[in-house]
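S2.1 Query sequence (CBS domain-containing protein)
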Amino acid sequence: MLVGERMTHPVIPVHPETSVPEALTLMRREKIRRLPVVDHGRLVGIVTDRDLLHASASSATTLSVWELNYLLSKLTVERVMCTDVLTVAEDTPIEEAARIMADNKIGGLPVMRGDHIVGMITETNLFRVLLEMTGAREKGVRATVLVPDRAGQLAQLTHAVAELGGNIIALSTFAGEDLSNSLVMCKLTGVEPELLRKQLAPLVERIVDIRES
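Output structure tokens follow.
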């Protein structure tokens, strides 16, 4: 899965000279938390709701409300935006975008096609991918098992499910308790939880959880 398949588009940009109140109003109306800042078609920065709210709060002095509103109306996005922007391309693997966001503690990345921004990949997009990967929106039996970290384990599990007539709608692997094992989570239909438990028990180190979900 690539970023271009799951990014949010079209992009809602702002200009560097957009005022802070205007940008905040736009974010609230569109229910978004970050805006790319574009000047003459070129990405020059990114601004988040936190940047804008912090700028608004820091302007609160002993000024009267009228003076404060006037001051904020003159404060532009250019003054508060981040100019050191990390970006990804449309053909970036989705997990690479997630790694960049996690490692840099950021909630979104502009998606570029050459010099032009064509989308945003955000934490919300990644949450939706997680829902797809785990089959969270579909009813079925959810099983989590601990298996030895060696070749052929997934093949054994999927064969065992097929023997019961089960249909796997999602399957993911995760780090186990140590380097010798892995956690496998699968969501399937067409099989009873207890029958599945009996079928998988001889093949795994431990059944962590089996439930209807």
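The domain at 135-212 is CATH 3.30.70.260 (Alpha-Beta Plaits). The beta strands are 34-39, 42-48, 88-89, 108-113, 116-122, 141-148, 167-175, 181-189, 206-212.
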